Enterochelin esterase (Paenibacillus woosongensis), 242 residues
Amino acid sequence: MTDSRYLKRTIVKEEIDSKYLGEKRSLRIYLPPGYNEILSYPVVYCQDGEEFFNYGRIATHANRLILDEGLDPFIIVGVEVDTSVRTEEYAPFGNRFDAYISCFTEEIIPYVESKYPVRREADERILAGDSLGGTISLHIAMKKPELFSKVISLSGAFYEKTQQLVAAESDLSFLSLYMIVGLQEDNYTTDTGTYNFVELNRATKSLLEDRGAQIRYLEKDGKHLWGFWQNELPEALLHFLE
């Protein structure tokens, strides 16, 4: 990725006032090469927005896919998070979980759609997240099927509460997920305990498929790190945008 064209990225920083969270929330907006306000674009909404841009290099990947692979241009919205309250916002047992979902669906999306020509159909919006970011992405899609039907999950942290909520659903046939997990994630310690992410993802995949969701599921050599996810992002984006 040394081609300088990939590094000429247009990234706009925005900030919203969230009444649900009682604070400001920062956004990073990637605009594709040839961006034109009179056109409309598919949109990828990323949890952990700062990390997707800095460690996932998602804007550089996007430029390469658009410039070299012929992928139709798309917009990326990275939603930043305060890591000290990340679990509280992203985990279904967190005390800011409901407030974050309300902020995301009722404040961030309308704000983005008021300023940028993103498409508004559920199948033109993609949610993406790593670890607990994959978890909250799945929960947002399950709660708001009118808004989202596509989820990219990079080593999703699908703990027991998430599996219970998936199991309580009867029909998830509107959902399409791209799931990947690293085979070296079988003994990973988080702020809430040590987990076998491979087993968590296998079990959640089965629960989702039993309820009609369409799953593209991959297990590869990899650790619970951006060094693994960064290299997997292009294929994940191509899965939904090609």
About this structure: The chain has one domain: 4-241.
